[in-house]
Amino acid sequence: MNDNNSYSSYFENFFKDIYHYELDRKDKIEKSLIHIISIIIVICGVSIYFFDNLPNFFSCFFAIMFFALYFMLIYCIFVSTYFFIRTYHNYSYGYLPKPKEIEKDIKDFKEYYKTIIVNGDKISNKVEEDMRNYITTWYIESSEKNTTNNDMKSYFRHMTYKWFIGILVFLILSSFMFFLNNLLK
User: Fold this and answer.
1) How many domains does the chain have?
2) Residue 145 domain boundaries
3) With b meaning 16 or more CB within 10 Å and e meaning fewer, what string describes 33-61?
4) Higher pLDDT, 55 or 134
5) Residue 14 and residue 25: Cα distance in Å, rounded?
6) By three-state DSSP, how is residue 22 classified?
7) Contacts with 105 (C-beta within 8 Å, 6 or more apart), sequence order
8) C-alpha angle 34/35/40, rounded to 5°?
9) pLDDT tens, position by position, 95-152
10) Cα–Cα distances in Å, from 50 out to 75, 169, 174?
11) pLDDT at 123
């Protein structure tokens, strides 16, 4: 019986650790994007500056190149922002029941076992065993849901970073065309 109890305790702790790991992972994923969105907001300001201060272009080539690069910059901003939003929204995470719910379940288990078992000592052992199984099941189900959500969030974070690189590339290129045109006028 002692080996079975340590075996059960091992898995209970294992699933508990996974549950807490996934909640920590959720926070890390969300915090990792704060700097990126701040930079994207600044780049939006730069792109608005470009639009408000459109120069008379030196040649048709400069105009076409600037607008092609500028619209690619805007496109990358929109796509990156889309993936950023997908990283944060439409996820429902699994959490353990509230203490009042657990207390109610304990009372329900006690009432149930009172109808079956007469000895009070056995009732408390059965209730404890059932509650441990019940909470372990919550850890398993919540961890599964949280892992799936975090995997999706990681994918969308990766896509945000990928499109952010495009933003930087097209910002540099469109800035180059914008300022080079102003120098050549």
Assistant:
1) 1
2) 2-184
3) beebbeebeebeeebeebeeeeeebeeee
4) 134
5) 16
6) helix
7) 97, 131, 134
8) 100
9) 989 999 999 998 998 888 888 765 656 788 888 888 988 999 999 999 999 999 999 9
10) 15, 16, 9
11) 81
